[in-house]
Design a protein that fits this description.
- With about 190 residues, the chain is mainly alpha-helical.
- The chain has two domains: about 1-135, no CATH class; about 145-185, no CATH class.
- It has helices at about 1-20, 60-75, 75-100, 115-135; strands at about 25, 30, 145-150, 180.
- The strands form two sheets. A two-stranded antiparallel ribbon has the order 1-2. A two-stranded antiparallel ribbon has the order 3-4.
- Strand 1 and strand 2 (about 30) form a beta hairpin.
- The protein is elongated, with a radius of gyration of 28 Å.
- The two termini are about 30 Å apart.
- It comes from Streptomyces sp. R21.
Length: about 190
């Protein structure tokens, strides 16, 4: 249970960092919310055209945060990991497209180049993956069930194989075993 709590906390922090990142500078002071999502997939590459909030990088990061919330509520490691892959995938795709548009990506001490928004998105994606790795997920409910073999040979199913000599039916044609709980030990 402690692993699920710790993993959930890491995942929620990662989702928060990812959603917050478009409101920070991504490259040369331009915020992530101003990069059009369509530019990442178009042949023309990243343009200087400003995007609306839900047509920008904000959209996939919010979708990843919603997937994270559902994953945490359902204790699903797979959903939390999927959210991390979405965040990292869009961040790397953005970096590739901006690198193609600009000719290179850089970081310098004057605030030019890659900004804190990219760092926040990367950190958020990594925290989502770490959170998914830490979580145990849902425990499987395992009732202690035992199989009860048939007490006597049974007739083959209609159209099935005939019993072998000695009255047994081949294993692949036997009916499925019934399940019951073992007797409780009250000592």
């Amino acid at each position: 249970m402690a692993r699920n709590v710790l993993g959930s906390i890491l995942a929620l922090i990662g989702a928060t960092a990812a959603v917050w990142s478009p409101f920070r500078a991504w490259y040369d002071g331009r915020h992530g919310r101003y990069y059009r999502l369509g530019d990442l997939f178009s042949g023309s590459g990243v343009t200087d055209v400003r995007a609306g909030l839900f047509a920008s990088l904000f959209l996939p990061l919010v979708v990843a945060a919603v997937i994270t919330l559902v994953g945490v509520l359902l204790r699903s490691r797979l959903l939390v990991a999927l959210a991390g892959v979405i965040v990292l995938g869009f961040t790397v795709l953005w970096m590739v497209r901006v690198g193609q548009f600009e000719g290179s990506l850089s970081v310098d001490s004057d605030g030019n180049g890659l900004g804190l928004g990219v760092a926040g998105a990367f950190a958020g994606g990594v925290l989502l993956l770490v959170g998914a790795g830490v979580m145990r997920g849902r425990g499987r409910r395992r009732d202690r069930l035992t199989t009860v073999p048939p007490s006597e040979p049974t007739a083959p199913p209609p159209g099935g194989a005939a019993p072998e000599p000695g009255g047994t039916v081949p294993a692949e044609d036997q009916p499925t075993a019934t399940w019951r709980r073992p007797p409780q030990d009250h000592t």
